[in-house]
Amino acid sequence: MIVAFSVTPLGVGDDVGEYVADAVRVVRESGLPNRTDAMFTSVEGEWDEVMDVVKRAVAAVEERAPRVSLVLKADIRPGVTDGLTSKVETVERHLAD
C-alpha cells in the first residue's frame, strides 16, 4: 500500500517547516520507501507498518504543537511493491510517447 499524508501543526504561526521536518524525519528513519514533495509525504509498505509510521510522524509534531491536522490518502493494492516508482515511471512513459 501507498499512503500519502500531510501533517500540519496548528497554533504555531505561519512558519511550520521545522515541525514538518520532525514528521518527515520519522518517515525517513523508518526505512520504508518514501518520497516527500511540497504537499505530501508518501510512504510504501504493509498496512500496519505504514500506519505505525504515520502515527509516529503525527506524534512527533504533536510533541511541540498544541494541535495537529492530518490529511491521508491510501492506495491499498495487495501484492504490489515499488508502486512509488513504477506509478511515476508509467506516467513518464506515456508522456514520452
TrEMBL record:
GO cellular component: cytosol
Coiled coil (residue ranges): none
InterPro entries per record: MTH1187/YkoF-like (IPR029756), Thiamine_BP (IPR002767), UPF0045_domain (IPR051614)
UniProt domain Thiamine-binding protein: residue ranges: 3-92
Family per similarity comment: Belongs to the UPF0045 family.
Protein name: MTH1187 family thiamine-binding protein
Naturally occurring in which organism (per UniProt): Streptomyces sporangiiformans
